[in-house]
Write a structure and sequence with these properties.
The chain is an alpha+beta fold. 41% of the residues lie in helices and 14% in strands. The protein has seven helices and six strands, in the order ααββββααβαβαα. A six-stranded antiparallel sheet has the order 1-2-3-4-6-5. A hairpin with a 2-residue loop joins β3 and β4. The radius of gyration is 19 Å and the shape is globular. It starts with 25 loop residues before the first helix and ends in an 11-residue tail after the last helix.
Length: 233
């Protein structure tokens, strides 16, 4: 899941027209299952052509289908940044992309996933986020916007969360679970065994992004972009 800044508000719209993408083939899952078992340069080089045909090309098809409503997509590089990690595995075990107008899409051996929101917040964003959650009107409004997403099977995720209440907030606050978060993303996963549901992934993802529009709007209004210099975030 990306943390490269807050995504824009996803726009609601009609069903996608001219949808071409029909999902990733079984070879894509097999590729990532193999990579999880052997995350090495040798495996990657031996299966690179399969990655480009069965993993990357389908992701590009999905992004093309979504572009008219959610903007151009950007696929992340498959290489991990291992400079500061104890895990030196060179390759990511998922392919992921962001959409220009908001949204994140991922595919791996665990299937398809999508997310909307602000995954990681800078210090000034986090302060506004918590103040808004603690506010009776704004906080209650957020809870109302999240309920339909939860009922639709979405989970709430973030870059990190506190084990207890943040400083200055009561441990028994009615929205303490939200106050402990250091970001807020609605996350939906569709495993490979989802079957027919995954035969039209473009419509599946677009429907989820539209459902996230109220959450995106709340974040845009009450949290917004960081005003801090990058090195101070």
């Amino acid at each position: 899941m990306s943390s490269e800044g807050p995504p824009a508000v996803a726009r609601c719209g009609p069903s996608l027209e001219g949808v071409a993408f029909r999902g990733w083939p079984a070879e894509a899952v097999e590729f990532y299952e193999g990579l999880e078992a052997d995350n090495s340069k040798q495996y990657w080089q031996q299966h690179k052509a399969g990655y480009e045909e069965h993993v990357l090309a389908p992701m590009q098809e999905l992004l093309n289908d979504l572009a008219s409503e959610f903007g151009a997509g950007r696929v992340f590089r498959p290489y991990r940044d291992v400079r500061f990690s104890t895990d030196k595995s060179p390759y990511k075990t998922q392919i992921a992309a962001t959409l220009e107008r908001g949204g994140y899409v991922q595919f791996s051996a665990d299937g398809l996933a999508a997310g909307c929101g602000m995954y990681a917040l800078a210090a000034d964003q986090l302060d506004r986020f918590r103040r808004s959650i603690a506010d009776e009107l704004r906080g209650a409004d957020l809870v109302r916007r999240l309920e339909p997403l939860r009922h639709a099977g979405a989970e709430l995720a973030a870059h990190d969360r506190l084990k207890s209440a943040p400083r200055g907030y009561a441990k028994d606050h009615p929205r303490i679970d939200l106050l402990r978060l250091k970001g807020l993303v609605a996350w939906r996963q569709w495993p490979p065994e989802a079957g027919a549901e995954l035969e039209q992934p473009s419509s599946l993802v677009a429907t989820f992004f539209r459902a996230c529009a109220p959450l995106q709007a709340w974040l845009a209004e009450h949290v917004g972009e960081s005003q801090l210099e990058a090195r101070r975030r």
